[in-house]
Amino acid sequence: MKSMSKEIGIDLGTSYTRISVRGRGTVLSEPTVVAINKVTGEILAVGNQAKEMLGRTPDNIVAVRPLKDGIIADFEATRMLVQNLVYRVVPKSLFYKPRVIITIPSNITDVEERAVEGVGYRVGAKAVYLIEEVMAAAIGAGLQIERPEGCMIVDIGGGTSEMAVLSLGGIVAENSVRVAGDKLDSDIVEYIRNRFNVLIGITEAEEIKKQIGSASSAMTEEKMSVKGRNLSTGLPETVAITTKDVNEAISGSLEIILKAIKTTLENTPPELSSDVMSKGIVLCGSGSLLKNLDRYISEQTGIPVFIAENPSECVSRGVSMSLDNIDLLKKSVKSKRL
Prior knowledge:
By secondary structure, the protein is an alpha+beta fold. The chain is built from 10 helices and 19 strands.
């Protein structure tokens, strides 16, 4: 095996965790899910295998998402997840005190920041660098953040939506709301419960969003059948959901994201605002794949909106690129050492 890299990148997301190794790029991407035996505390599965267990486990096994809204909700489960994924790409016997970059949301508290940092040290890091997701996203999306002009990134992930205007290698104005892809899924579950008295799973809701969801009125109305449980009879039932239904379900959450974008623009100096007006807003994150989301934001702000190439990979790509320039990027990352 080739000599071990001394730099590891971890895009610790609510929905997916991605591992990067310096010189190799992103080498692993798995759902941020852990299956644990409640009796023994033993980890049974992580990532894809654990996600398949969600809602399907016996009483003695629990499949959990250890991050909520971009924040660590279960430290031990997060540690086990990260350790398992890191050791898959860098075997423990060779994992000797690397430097680690881990992404964090911009609205993180000091306590939450220390929890993320602790995960890095628990997997054997010599030094842990915490980089804000919007910074990593901007780097991964190819924005020229070092130039003396404004550029704006909006990263809509699973747990949080982050937006920032950057210039001269730093963040000038930023905002974050704990409303993103997961909230849209739960909105759909709640809407179907209230309108049809039928309960569906969160996985089914996500599929509805992907297949027929739209941020604005679609030219053609699409339909999709979904199976759930009638809350009155307890029996299985199939209901037909339309694009209009989905749009109605998620409109409130989309307005929250839009308001955060507008607030960020309001807090941006006029000189940089004019740059954003001319260059446009770049969308990334898995949530940016919602149909017509770019058009919706553009119509509401009057600013051109573009979706980054491979938007779901922007943050992890930015982390990977940062691994090659840790020393140069220290002014953009939070560095903590033992």
